[in-house]
Amino acid sequence: MLTRAQKEAEVEHLAEALGRAQSLLAIDYRGLTVEGANELRRRLREVEGEVEYRVSKNTLLRRAIEGTAAAGLSNFLTGPTAIALGFDAEPSSVAKALVDFAKDHEAFEIKGGLVEGEVIDLSEVQRLAALPTKHELRGMLAGTLQAPMRNLAGTLYGLLGNLRNALEQRQQQLGA
Description:
This protein is α+β, with helices and mostly antiparallel strands and about 180 residues long. It folds into two domains: about 5-130, CATH 3.30.70.1730; about 135-175. The chain has six helices and five strands; from the N terminus they run H-E-H-E-H-E-H-E-E-H-H. Strand 4 (about 110-115) and strand 5 (about 120) form a beta hairpin. Helix 4 (about 90-105) crosses helix 5 (about 120-130). The longest helix is centred in the C-terminal third of the chain and has 42 residues, at about 135-175.
């Protein structure tokens, strides 16, 4: 059992973490085995950027979010709750890791979350998980920007090849 000083320190830590986090997802971890929790932590470590997964008492979480933009999360703070905080990780990457994990583990349930100051429910978390990451979007953009240049180069190469063939044929006619 935590002492009052430990609880106050936990609330301060949670409030500070919530202030820094770009995304927060509330999770019902009931029925998750130790091996499952370790696998979840491993998957969250694979996400590019800093992600923190922690189990906390709902009363401490409620105190930490009082008077902040995260106050709307109080609806999700029922039953056993764990939170995944994404600090410099893309919210879509964190959501994707959790949604993929939930597909493999029936006991794991995402309740909702907070992304860049807006409270989102499970359906929005799933939509967020379906979005490509910034890295994937940059690759798509680079491919889109590169396509016209590649097409122009291919067209010019074809024209030069046709010109070369025409000159070779004319050379053969004159030589004969």
